[in-house]
Every structure is written in C-alpha cells, then in structure tokens.
C-alpha cells in the first residue's frame, strides 16, 4: 500500500498541489494519510483555513478526506514569513471563498502527526512518501523530537520543494522561499535526513512552466464540471493568468512549484532526469543566508561529501499536465 503525507503553507500553488494529492488517490492508487500545516506564504492561522477550504472542495468532488494537523506558527528561531504580494492577503488569492468551519483540525499537531504516520507505515509495511511544500520547520522538529528518529525509517522517500541549484533565488538573490523561511530547519533536514530525499527546486520549476494553453484547458476555462475546477479557477484568477502574467519570470506559462513536487511524490515517473549531489544550507547571517550550496563537481564532488540528495533535473511535463487535468476533472 502506498501512502502520502503533505506538509504545506497553503498558498495558491500549495492549493493546486493539495487538490492533486486528494483528488488523484483512486486513479493513482495511494492514500493521502494526512496534511500538516505551517506558516509561510501567509500566517499559520490563514493556512489552516485555506487547507480546510481545499479539503471541502475536494470532498464535494468525491475525494476521500484526510486529517489536517496544525503546525508551526513560525520558524525554529521565531522567524516569520509572508508572500501576500503573490498569494494574496488570505494566502489563497483573496477569492472570498467561505471557510468550512465544520471541518475540524485533528487534535494531534503536525509534529505528532508526522512521527505517528512514520511509525504506522513502519508497522504496516506501507510505502510512505512525505512531501514538503512549505518551510521545513515541522519536519525538522519531528526529526529532532521523534524519540531517536525511528519514525523516519517508515518514510520510503522525502520529496522537498525548495532550494535553488543555480543561486537564482526568489526570497533573496540566492535563496529560495521555503528554505529562507527557516534556514535552521532546512539545514537540519539536509544534514540529518538519512533516507531517500528528492529535491524539486525553484529553478527546476521556473524551467518547467505549465504552458498557458494547457493551463487554460485544465484550470482557467469557462465551464468546469467539478467543484475543484471551479475552486482552482477562482483562487488562481489573479495570480496565474496569461494576460496579467503575474509571474514575470516565465512568460510561457504558470510556474506551479508545489504541484510539480506533489506530482513527483505521487508518481516517480514524473522525475525524468536526476543527479545525486551533496547539499548544504548556508545558515550564516550574511547576504547568502538560506542559499542551498550544491556540490556540482563531477566524480566525488568538489568536497567529496556524501551525495545523499536526488536533485531533479528534468520533469515529464506531459505526465504532470495529465495529472493536473485529472485533478480538476469532476468527481
Ligand atoms: C515556494 O514558495 C512558495 O511561495 C510556494 O508556495 C512554493 O512552495 C516556491 O519558492
Ligand atoms: Ca508552498
């Protein structure tokens, strides 16, 4: 049995990713066991509401529900973050959608949830993939607190949306948002995660936009038969549109990082090209804080450190686009 766990700071591209995680369960043959939330694109409080909104729309389309675990309200050193300039004041494109208050959060928090699902997967022999699409705070905390870290042995693969391999950052000149939001947490994960780890980086996502035509056919078209289609169209309206082209980095299409990471987590075939590398996170306070320093040196790498990270170099975008289509299809 295949299980998925998503840690998110929803976020518009997170919402697309979460819809995929919930909607594709039957067709792709896995179970979404839980979603944990964190601060990031907007406040933790907004994120909890946003994930509820996502869940409600997916359930209306017939998707199986999963528990939502509230997590970090700030970084390990009390950092805060904000990306309302992109994701809107509410973090979900300010689309004014109703909060389904009846959808309660799980009584266990994110850290407890993560540790619990790792242990359960180990017991049950399930193939669990954990994918993080926000700051790495919850994961790092679970790694630090989880009774010797045995729970990590239950995780078949960790997929991280974060970092950049070419020093073209989005949070700073050289740092990517999810890493920069909590550099201590990110450094801990890159240094201490001992299982399989796949990175879907900012530069990879910028190089793989969903072409506007495909995006329109899936998300921004006039009529949707399903609730998720209508939901995504509403939240994406002001952010991903060929006319407004809010993401000036790519005129060719919509850069939806978190969706691509979740697509890789659900279906390994989306990862078409990869390179094993060593990655360290700069935690110093200078202008390079939050930089993911990748050792691209050939053979053993420049520093000869362990190449423990699978850095994704190429995606099967046809497959990813097919998954986006299946996500919005009516239930
Ligand atoms: C990442 O930062 C956030 O703005 C997105 O949701 C994505 O997770 C991209 O750098
Ligand atoms: Ca995110």
Give structural notes.
The protein is of the alpha/beta class and 331 residues long. It has helices at residues 12-23, 25-28, 44-60, 84-87, 110-124, 137-145, 177-181, 183-192, 202-206, 212-220, 227-236, 257-266, 317-328, and strands at 2-8, 31-37, 68-69, 127-132, 155-161, 196-200, 210-211, 253-254, 271-281, 292-295, 309-315. The chain has a nine-stranded mixed β-sheet, sandwiched between helices. Strands 7-8 form a two-stranded antiparallel sheet. Strand 2, helix 3 (44-60) and strand 3 (68-69) form a beta-alpha-beta unit. Helix 1 (12-23) runs antiparallel to helix 11 and helix 1 (12-23) runs parallel beside helix 12. It is globular, with a radius of gyration of 18 Å. Mean pLDDT is 94; it is low at 245-249. Bound molecules: beta-D-ribofuranose (BDR) and calcium ion (CA). Calcium ion binds next to loops.
